Amino acid sequence: MKILIGMPSKDSWGGPISSEPPFVEALRELGVEVVEKTYVYGDKEKPTPFFERIKRVWKTAFRFRKLLKNNNFDVLHLNSAFDLKTILRDSFSLFIMNPKKTKVFFKFHGSEAQDFFDTNIFIRFLIKYIAKKADGFGIHTTDELTNFECLGFEKGKFYFVKNTITIHQSLSNNFSQKHKEKDETFDLIFVARFVPNKCLLETITACKIIKDKGYSFILHCIGDGEIRKKAEILVRELNLELEIKFTGYIPEKEVEKYFFESDILIFPTKYGEGFPNVFFKALAIGMPIVSTKFRAAKDFLENGKYYLACTSNPENIANKIIEIIENKKLRQSISKNNLEFGKSLLPKNIAEEYLQVYKKL
């Protein structure tokens, strides 16, 4: 089997750049011939100018067209999402690429199909074009499938997939998290883009409640984004400078150090998460987690067994963090279950699942 995979650029931010390369290597180990070419670029601190973005999409589409014309690929696998920018990019790219007999598979690392139930005739045309031209779609959750069906997509074209997680590859079978006593200082981590729907401000407010109740902790806020200044002002207003630290954006390997040195992940997202790598990295090394019931959490994980579910309300977030701090047996149980689940996310297991999807296509 020969596959052309559209990859994220090596300097991309976010989950795909950490999950896709090891997945590709695992495919090769299974005997699949893989050709990788950059398809997803992403934005950094500043958005790419509009005309520069168009130029880049144009060049990329023609590069893929040439590869498809000169090679007999069985599958064209494109990493993408499903929002306005990617609908415009993917529909145009598919038209230019002209894959012909090559089967087209989109892996959506996140999708907002529900945002297009009531859209203009032009966007509806592009969505129908993608739905017709693609042979398969990889999604993470049943919520996403329901939303795509409402847009008129064929249910039979969808496959439930997971992301590759590698943070725990080198861990021994007897690895376990160290569990502190409740009167010790707990290291909490918040890892995300600093945007309103990720609930950083609510988490900071929750920390004030925890502090006022006499618990000792340090919250490491890892990342950057539009609400960072607001977050730093709130920390000063609540006199939490000793308890809350900001790292700014740091490379993936440095982020992983924080995972191994921390006790609890705080993930109270309101964003339409698919299969967030941050959450599943923490899970894979057995870290207890306080999180909202985002899509994949509802589909794959049981509240109280793999994580402790919270709302985005600061008081509720605080209460759940306190419950985990207070209950050492709960922490130990969640850690054990998470380590076991994490094994299913190793590259070889994920690659084998994808290989079955490719064969069906």
Q: How does this structure look, described?
A:
With 361 residues, the protein is α/β, with parallel strands linked by helices. It has 2 domains: 2-164 and 346-360, Rossmann fold (3-Layer(aba) Sandwich); 186-344, Glycogen Phosphorylase B (Rossmann fold, 3-Layer(aba) Sandwich). Helices cover 44% and strands 18% of the residues. It has 13 helices and 12 strands. It has helices spanning 16-29, 50-70, 84-97, 121-133, 142-150, 200-212, 228-237, 252-261, 277-284, 295-300, 314-326, 328-342, 347-360, and strands at 2-8, 33-40, 75-82, 103-111, 136-139, 158-160, 186-191, 217-222, 244-248, 264-267, 289-291, 308-309. A 6-stranded parallel beta sheet has the order 2-1-3-4-5-6, with helices on both faces. It is globular. The N and C termini lie close together (12 Å).
Q: Main β-sheet: number of strands, strand sense, barrel status?
A: 6 strands, parallel
User: What's the CATH architecture name of the largest domain?
Assistant: 3-Layer(aba) Sandwich
Which homologous superfamily in CATH is the superfamily of the largest domain?
Glycogen Phosphorylase B
Whole-number average pLDDT?
A: 94
Helical proportion, percent range: 40-55%
What is the H/E order? EHEHEHEHEHEEHEHEHEHEHEHHH
Radius of gyration (CA) equals 21 Å
CATH topology of the largest domain: Rossmann fold
The gist of it:
This protein has two domains: 2-164 and 346-360, Glycogen Phosphorylase B (Rossmann fold, 3-Layer(aba) Sandwich); 186-344, Glycogen Phosphorylase B (Rossmann fold). The chain contains 13 helices and twelve strands.
